[in-house]
């Protein structure tokens, strides 16, 4: 060890650059691992805290996945609220959700449109919208209200047992982001339509055909439907806007199921799927598996980039150690001459490689941590609709352990050839050399 440390001290600039190169390579690997671990960890934590134990989509035209695009609609959504718990007593909640895109306008734009003078740059706001039955969400985590009292009517009054002739509440809850974009508060009106006006000149006609809603609440972000701007209305009223308000359609996008006892969800999955062949039922494990599959695709590309960095770092360290052996060839030959074994001389070279790599780890881990935190803050600022506590990075024992293993691997791989060279130095020739 003293000889290895002395070799590093005698060439500080070269040793520093070598350690920095190793540190950058290891830091890149740790950063990529921390990102993939953060997304997986956050998704898992949020999923199990959501209260959604099973998720069903329509099996019509489906391909057995949830994350591969918009699934086909589920017909007969309202009846499933009671039919699913009737088939599976362990299912305490079966909540149909319809997810669609609407175009919103506020009172200011309405006033300008009626005055036939819409200022340049003024336009509508597009947003994702969730239609649900507010009273049928027991056990499922929903966004907290920051203002207003929320929906006032029980059940889904406009549905009227499939007749769709009950009173329409025209109540809407907006998340904070959408409320901020529209510049509205609780008690004020917004107008919504599935179609956008083709031009500023048609805003007046668009308002005449749009549906006016009263804002009854402003909520926090909702992680389950990631969107920076999101609105919530009664299921039947969104169906009315999207053209599926009839007993023969009664569409939903998802059916979220909360179980009394979620210990063995596969049994409930099998029971519900057998009773409703038109549904494809997923457990949380299925959903998380799909998320992990997506993460793994990006992780594979990251691993390739990291591997290239590690190989380059190893070659760099190998070159530096070869130079070190050449510089110290007479010194190493003298050690052999006074009785040191070949193995001990080679071990000194290996130690030098490991120390250089360890110094690289001391550089790389802080760089990876600082870089990951910066990327995390940037992504959290860039992507709206994420819940409090969500993190894109996670520095756990596995991530740090992989960094340590990478450093040890670089040190051992890089020092192999230089160590062999040191062990095979011709002692007599080196000592006679001028």
Give an overview of the whole structure.
- The chain has 434 residues and is an alpha+beta fold.
- The chain has two domains: 188 residues, no CATH class; 155 residues, no CATH class.
- A six-stranded mixed barrel has the order 2-3-8-5-7-6, surrounded by five helices.
- The longest helix has 44 residues.
- It is elongated.
Question: What's the short version?
Answer:
The chain has 434 residues and is an alpha+beta fold. Helix content is 52%, strand content 16%.
Show the helix and strand layout.
Blueprint: H1 2-10, H2 12-49, E1 54-58, H3 77-87, E2 91-106, H4 107-114, E3 125-132, E4 145-148, E5 171-175, H5 176-182, E6 189-193, H6 203-209, E7 211-219, E8 230-234, H7 235-242, E9 254-259, H8 265-275, E10 279-283, H9 284-327, H10 329-337, H11 342-382, H12 397-423, H13 427-432
Parallel strand pairs: 3-8, 5-7
Antiparallel strand pairs: 1-9, 1-10, 2-3, 2-6, 2-9, 4-7, 5-8, 6-7
Helix pairs in contact: 1-11, 2-9, 2-11, 2-12, 9-11, 9-12, 11-12
């Amino acid at each position: 060890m003293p000889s290895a440390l002395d070799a590093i001290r005698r060439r500080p600039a070269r040793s520093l650059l070598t350690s920095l190169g190793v540190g950058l390579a290891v830091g890149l690997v740790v950063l990529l691992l921390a990102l993939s671990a953060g997304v997986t960890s956050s998704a898992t934590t949020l999923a199990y805290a959501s209260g959604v134990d099973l998720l069903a989509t329509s099996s019509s035209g489906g391909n057995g996945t949830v994350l591969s695009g918009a699934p086909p609609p589920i017909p007969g959504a309202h009846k499933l609220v009671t039919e699913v718990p009737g088939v599976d007593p362990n299912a305490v909640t079966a909540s149909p959700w319809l997810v669609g895109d609407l175009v919103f306008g506020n009172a200011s734009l309405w006033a300008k449109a009626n005055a036939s003078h819409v200022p340049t740059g003024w336009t509508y706001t597009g947003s994702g919208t969730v239609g649900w039955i507010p009273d049928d969400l027991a056990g499922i985590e929903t966004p907290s209200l920051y203002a207003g009292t929320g929906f006032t009517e029980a059940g889904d009054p406009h549905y009227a047992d499939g007749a769709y002739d009950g009173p329409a509440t025209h109540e809407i809850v907006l998340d904070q982001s959408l409320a901020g974009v529209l510049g509205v508060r609780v008690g004020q009106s917004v107008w919504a339509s599935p179609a956008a006006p083709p031009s500023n000149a048609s805003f007046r006609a668009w308002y005449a055909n749009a549906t006016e809603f009263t804002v009854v609440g402003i909520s926090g972000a909702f992680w389950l439907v990631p969107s920076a701007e999101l609105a919530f209305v009664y299921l039947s009223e969104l169906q009315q806007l999207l053209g599926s308000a009839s007993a023969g359609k009664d569409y939903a996008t998802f059916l979220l199921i909360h179980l009394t006892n979620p210990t063995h969800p596969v049994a409930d999955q099998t029971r519900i799927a057998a009773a409703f062949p038109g549904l494809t039922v997923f457990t949380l494990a299925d959903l998380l598996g799909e998320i992990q599959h997506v993460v793994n695709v990006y992780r594979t590309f990251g691993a390739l980039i990291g591997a290239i960095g590690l190989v380059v770092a190893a070659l760099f360290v190998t070159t530096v150690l070869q130079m070190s052996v050449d510089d110290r060839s007479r010194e190493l030959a003298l050690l052999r001459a006074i009785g040191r074994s070949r193995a001990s001389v080679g071990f000194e070279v290996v130690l030098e490689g490991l120390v250089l790599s360890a110094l690289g780890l001391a550089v790389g881990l802080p760089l990876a941590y600082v870089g990951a935190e910066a990327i995390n803050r940037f992504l959290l600022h860039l992507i709206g609709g994420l819940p409090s506590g969500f993190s894109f990075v996670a520095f756990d024992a596995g991530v740090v352990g992989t960094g340590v293993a990478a450093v040890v691997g670089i040190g051992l791989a890089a020092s192999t050839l230089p160590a062999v060279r040191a062990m095979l130095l011709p002692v007599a020739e080196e000592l006679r050399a001028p």
